[in-house]
Write a sequence for this structure.
């Protein structure tokens, strides 16, 4: 999801604006307009989020409890807020492999999608530390949908009457 590919996505968006009407990649003009609007809203959110990043070391603010998982771009830790004790999931992306723009993209897509009740909530706290960028989400401690679905089998459905 995150990473340095975001610049390329922006280039693609710019290219789409210049294409003739008949070459919309299977989209209607209205769908293309909506997509471009969403991309601009995301750019705005990324610019605002960049201005409100908390500059601190993660350990100063949060106590690490245990790792929750590892993604392609970074690790996810279960942490508690040092003052309040609130449990949170902290997604930490190392600076050597993550650009600021890549981090902001991941963070803001999370903020946007996380408003859906079926998607993990991303909280509006982005942190810039010496070696990493991080943001906080709701912790999911009882497994996600993927852990309940067996490949090529699916889930156990209750039998009908
Ligand atoms: N909020 C969360 N609560 C509990 N576990 C989580 C949470 N977020 C992520 N995880 C765990 O950490 C793993 C890595 O998550 P992460 O978001 O870094 O990568 P991903 O979305 O699985 O894949 P990608 O590498 O494409 O980003 C997940 O597969 C999941 O097991």
């Amino acid at each position: 999801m995150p990473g340095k590919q975001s610049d390329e996505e922006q280039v693609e968006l710019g290219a789409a604006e210049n294409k003739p009407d008949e070459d919309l990649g299977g989209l209607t003009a209205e769908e293309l307009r909506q997509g471009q609007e969403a991309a601009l809203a995301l750019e705005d959110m990324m610019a605002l989020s960049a201005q409100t990043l908390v500059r601190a070391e993660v350990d100063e603010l949060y106590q690490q409890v245990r790792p929750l998982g590892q993604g392609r771009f970074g690790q996810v830790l279960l942490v508690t807020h040092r003052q309040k004790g609130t449990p949170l999931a902290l997604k930490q992306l190392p600076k050597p492999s993550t650009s600021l723009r890549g981090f902001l993209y991941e963070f803001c897509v999370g903020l946007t999608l996380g408003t859906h009740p079926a998607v993990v909530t991303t909280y509006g706290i982005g942190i810039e530390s010496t070696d990493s960028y991080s943001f906080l989400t709701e912790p999911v401690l009882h497994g996600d949908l993927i852990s309940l679905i067996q490949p090529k089998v699916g889930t156990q459905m209750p039998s009908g009457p």
